[in-house]
Amino acid sequence: QLQLVESGGGFVQPGGSLRLSCAASGPNARNYDIGWFRQAPGKDREAVSCVTVNDDIYDADSAKGRFTISRDNAKNTVYLQMNNLKPEDTAVYYCAADVWRGTVQAMCEKGYTLRTWGRGTQVYVSS
User: Fold this and answer.
1) pLDDT tens digits for 63-84?
2) From residue 44, how far is each of 41, 51, 81, 96, 122 by CA, in Å?
3) How far apart are alpha carbons 127 and 121 in whole angstroms?
4) Burial class (CB in 10 A: 0-12, 13-18, 19+), 109
5) Do residues 40 and 90 make contact, with C-beta atoms less than 8 angstroms apart?
């Protein structure tokens, strides 16, 4: 059974950077498509960025120009490098995985259908 563990969250001032990690373990862990999602207090969960096993990437508008998703298959880990963080980026960040049979954009937009989720890591951006 696939398991996902997020790490790397924390407190940062506006303009700062964080790198989140999503470590996958279990059978065939490197064969899963993985996405990052976030949920701010009082808001719905939203997609941030997704990457397939073939390194196809989709970035939501919130991520474009500031966040970069990448995967290290040797370590079964997907990263989210977040730069120029803003207070509105404050949220719990989750990674999720599945074997996706469509476009990477659709995977992000329909993230609620992904079958495996981590427990999340808190990101707090404030001065």
Assistant:
1) 999 999 999 999 999 999 999 9
2) 8, 21, 22, 16, 15
3) 20
4) middle
5) yes
